Amino acid sequence: MLCFIYIKKHFPELALSPQDRQANGKMIWQLITMGVPMGLQYSITAIGSMVMQSANNSLGSVYISGFTAGMRIKQFAMCPFDAIATAVSVFCGQNLGAGKPDRIKKGIFQGVASAVAYGIVSGLVLIFLGRTLSLIFIDPSETEILDAAAKYLRCLGFFYWCLGSLCVVRMSIQGLGFSGRAIISGIIEMAARIIVSMGFVGTLGYTAICFADQTAWVTAFLYVLPMCIHCIHKVSKSIETPVNI
User: Fold this and answer.
1) Distances, alpha carbon 196 to alpha carbons 110, 117, 123, 158, 216, in Å
2) Interacting residues of 72 by C-beta distance below 8 A, sequence separation 6+
3) Half-sphere exposure (CA, 13 Å, Cβ side) for 167?
């Protein structure tokens, strides 16, 4: 409510006019077709994580506790990726509307560079300080659980740069209006986690759990990178010769 009051007072150009309050069926449909796939993407990704959690539960209480602590730290460290990716997505959408494909390309490149830089730094923290960070959730006397959490975080750290690239590139595709194609990456992530969890935990044990996320990230990135290049090319072409995309 305070934000609404502030906008109304300082940004009159954003104030809602009577015309803005009228329902626009076409715009509502566009918002639904973009928003629903984005929501489904997170749901689909979560299914893969649930299967991975279920497979890990079969390994015993030590690995359950270590994995749970590691997941909390992992999710906290991922927050900047979501922020960068959302910013790039909005930037792409704005410049798509403005008809500036060069700025779209520049924004995606700088977004990926920022995410990779953060991914390298945060990855090093997870690699070298994962055990120390795990002490936030685990008692120092629980050495086996600390070892399990540290191993999980250490394995994640080497691939955090890839996760950053994946988040930015995928959200860029969504920002350009290709949500349906972006959701496929979520399906790929889910499939990769399920395959690793159900196919390799029995033989590799906890090590398979430690590399399930990375397998999902790399596999999904191998899809979204060429897809993003294709979408940028398609958008650039449509701006040069305006058509409905």
Assistant:
1) 33, 28, 22, 18, 9
2) 137
3) 25
pLDDT digits (tens, 9 = 90+) for 18-56: 777 788 888 888 778 777 777 777 788 889 989 999 999
Tokens of 141: 């006397």
* Interaxial angle between packed helices 143-157 and 101-134, expressed in degrees from 0 to 180 and rounded to the nearest 10: 160
198/38 Cα distance (integer angstroms): 27
Q: How confident is the prediction for the chain on average, in pLDDT?
A: 91
Residues 6+ positions from 239 with CB-CB distance below 8 Å? 96, 99, 100, 101
Q: 86, exposed or middle or buried, with CB in 10 Å at 0-12, 13-18, 19+? A: middle
Q: What is the DSSP code string of 160-200?
A: HHHHHHHHHHHHHHHHTT-HHHHHHHHHHHHHHHHHHHHHT
Q: Cα–Cα distance between 125 and 235 in angstroms, integer? A: 38
- Count how many Cα atoms sit within 13 Å of the Cα of residue 136 in the half-sphere of its side chain: 12
Count of helices and strands (H, E) across the chain: 10, 0
